[in-house]
Structure formats: structure tokens, C-alpha cells
Amino acid sequence: MPITDCETHGESGCLEMCAHLKDALKGGVFLPYHTLPVYTIRMCSACFSDHRVKEVLDQVRLDKGQVYALRAAAQGLQSIGPDYLFESALLERDHPEVLAEIVRIYGVLNAHSGLRCVGCIDQIQLDHARNTQAELPFEPFEHTLLHSEDTRIDALRALVLDHMDPRGNYGQRFYGCTVFSGSVRRPLTLKIYGIEPAQARTQMLARIAGFFEKIPERQRLVQFYGPIQWTEETTAQGTQRTRIADVLLDEVLVR
User: Fold this and answer.
1) Is 156 left (phi over 0), alpha (psi -120 to 50) or beta?
2) By percentage, how much of the chain surpasses pLDDT 90?
3) Sign of the alpha-carbon dihedral angle for 153, 190, 216, 186
């Protein structure tokens, strides 16, 4: 996903879309959309029909299992590349004519496409639903910290880390915290790794609650996980680390 520097949300992901969706969003209108596979540009219903995208989708369905298998077999930095690299490789191997058509359609749409911050798209979608008295598309979080460079986010993370023991890497385990700014679709999210005793988690929640006492944007999701763990395998090509799936211990949502 491309990254943009948004005035409201700071450094955040953005989505590419056809000119019609782009212009509609500028006018405060959220239109239904379809997504081109592999080159994931959004398109309106008219573009979906005009470019006969349904015929492309009907020709082949990407097998996620095969995509994951290609990723698992990749080495080095390629193994953490975006999905479209592996999806392209799979289609190039098994259905090159389908990939060629996807590339052609993307080229036509891309010539007049636009990019928009994901958080801003969510806000427009919510506002449009309210203006048209439609059902809300998601539970809104309108009192949460939005900007990724808000200094209060750094201070919150520092508070958590200052009260973690152990903290950092210990063998093949990591104890720490990441904090993600929120949007109208999701609240500020803290992912805390390695605080396993229930009493210690309760104490940390109390510290976090104290931090937000004088902050009006207090909506948040706090998730406690076991420590991040990974395995290491040394081969002729070097040492390969494989992260073990995170274990969620508890989560608390403050609305």
C-alpha cells in the first residue's frame, strides 16, 4: 500500500482509485467500488463494466495457499515483499494471458487515477452515510488520537515501556510495545508484548487510564500478547528467522 503524508492522519496508507471514485470523494460522495486483482486499484461500477473485469475474475481465482507457498519459498527481503509480487508470479506461471489483461486494465485506469488517505476515505464514507441517512458502514471512533506524529502517542509508548520488565530482546523473545494512531474506523491501538501475569496487565491498564484522564481523545484498544517469538534456521545461504504466530492474552476496548 502506498504511503502519504496526510494533514489529518500524518504518515498513513493511501489507496489508488479510478478518476470517477476520486472525483466523487472530492464532492463528499462515497460510491460502491470493485477492486482489480493483483494491481489493487479501486474502480467504480461503470469502469468495472466497461473494462469487463468480471470476465477476468471469472477466468481465474487466485489460490491464496499457492501465494503463501511462493512466499514461504522466497529468500531474504523478497520473503517480506507485498502480495502482488507473488500473485503476479503465480499468474505469470499459470495464466500469463490473464496477467497481461490485468496489466492492460490497470494501465488505462492508472492514467487518470488518484490517491487518497485511507483514514480520509473512511471519514467521507461515514459522513456520506449520515448525510443520506443510510446505515452506518462501521462503528465510528470519533474521539481517538488520529495523527501518527502526535507527540502524545510517543509519550504513551514511553510510559508503557518504562514500566516493562523485562524489555527488549531476550534470546528468541521480544518484550515491548507498538502504538498505532487511530482513524474514524478504528481506535488508537496499543499492542503490548510480554506482560503475561494478569495482575501486571491490570496495573498497566491503570497507568494507561491515568495517562488519558485529561485527554478528550481517549478511545483506544489495548491488546496484550505473549512475547514475540521466532525460530532460527542456519543454512548455506545464511540464518533465516521465522516469526511464530502471536498469542493474544487479553484486550480492552475503551469506547
Assistant:
1) alpha
2) 73
3) positive
Return all residues near 107 (Cβ < 8 A) that are at least 6 apart: none
Distance CA 252, CA 13 (A): 25
Backbone CA torsion sign across 190, 193, 199, 200? negative
- In the Cβ-directed half-sphere of 164, how many Cα atoms lie within 13 Å? 23
Angle, helices 83-94 vs 96-110, to 10°: value is 130
Give the residue from 179, 226, 181, 220 showing the smallest Cα distance to 201.
Answer: 226
CB 2 within 8 A of CB 13: yes
Q: Check residue 200 and give its pLDDT.
A: 97
Q: How far apart are CA 169 and CA 161, in angstroms?
A: 13
pTM of the model: 0.84
Burial 94-112 (b: 16+ CB within 10 A, else e): eeeebbebbeebbeebeee
pLDDT value at position 68?
67
Hey, which bits of the chain come out as E strands? 3-6, 10-17, 34-35, 42-43, 114-117, 168-170, 173-180, 188-193, 220-225, 228-235, 238-243, 248-254
Task: Assign 152 a pLDDT band (cuts: 50, 70, 90).
Answer: very high
User: Which one has a higher pLDDT value, 68 or 140?
Assistant: 140
- All cell numbers assigned to 254: 475503551
- CA 14, 19, 20, 22 torsion: positive or negative? positive
Neighbours of 125 (CB within 10 A): 19
